[in-house]
Amino acid sequence: MAIANSLAFLLYLCCTALLIRRFVQRDQANSTSLLPVGILTVIALVFHGAAISMTMNMEGGWGLNFFTSQSIVAWLMALVALIWSARTPNAPPGIIIYPLVAFSIILKTSLPHEEARILINPALEWHILLSLAAYSLFALAAIQAVVLAIQERQLKQRHLAGLMRKLPPLQTMESTLFQLIVSGFILLSLGLLAGAFFINDIFAQHLIHKSVLSLIAWYVFAILLWQRWNKGLRGKAAINWTLIGFGFLLLAYFGSRFVLEYIL
């Protein structure tokens, strides 16, 4: 497991270095292919996934704790970034995402772990998997929102610098943002429904923080999408709604779990 984590960490860093090199060389009219980055990312995902699998697979079911959940989210973010890069080759998201994923591996391997909770209910496993997949998409949406805010501000100042000069137009960036939000909203809805059906008491004392905050986040994103489809919401307002919704999810998925596992 340690070897798999180390190899995944090094490969993500290599991918980041290649993307930065490609970005710098493009400024000098000497661009390179994304194919090597794609191949290295796939290999990194394989090692990263193997490390997660070795951590999770326990006798009797899945074993999950704070850092295992965080690793699953990081792996899903890297996977989506790889797919996403095919759509935005001029500004591949991996240049931001892969360093974050590498950092998550460092956290997982260097900090002390609480004992994993073993899940013996397959339905509960699906609820958790859907929820983590939704969180990974909303995390990417939050990053996209921050980049969009910087791009919009620099455009207003008529001074695009660095990576901002290579990004697609604002309309394309905004469209990508809402594609991520819609996909995440669907998965979050399915995850909440699965939880309502298969968890005996979703508002039990040890779950109430996660349940209430997740429902608030769902409501925030529902309002955001309604305003987008009915009123054409965009720009700064859309960015703010996205970050607020993600903030509630962050508290729901990891804030409450971190407090329960490492503080209380």
Short descriptors:
264 residues; mainly alpha; 2 domains; 3 strands; flat
Describe the 3D structure.
This protein is mainly alpha-helical. The chain folds into 2 domains: 1-120; 121-264, no CATH class. The protein is built from 8 helices and 3 strands, in the order H-H-E-E-H-H-E-H-H-H-H. The chain has a 3-stranded antiparallel beta sheet with strand order 1-2-3. Helix 3 (66-85) runs antiparallel to helix 4 (94-110), helix 6 crosses helix 7 (208-231) and helix 7 packs antiparallel against helix 8 (235-263). The protein is flat and about 55 Å long.
Gist?
The chain is mainly alpha-helical and 264 residues long. It has two domains: 1-120; 121-264, no CATH class. The protein contains eight helices and three strands; from the N terminus they run ααββααβαααα.
Distance between the termini: 29 Å
- The side-by-side strand order for the widest beta sheet comes to 1-2-3
Number of distinct helices: 8
Sequence stretches where pLDDT stays below 50 over 5 or more residues: 27-31
The general outline is flat
- Return the string of H and E elements: HHEEHHEHHHH
Strand content: under 5%
Helix content estimate: over 70%
Structural class call reads mainly alpha
- Count of domains: 2
Radius of gyration: 19 Å
Please report the total strand number as a whole number: 3
Mean pLDDT: 82
Note the main sheet. 3 strands, antiparallel
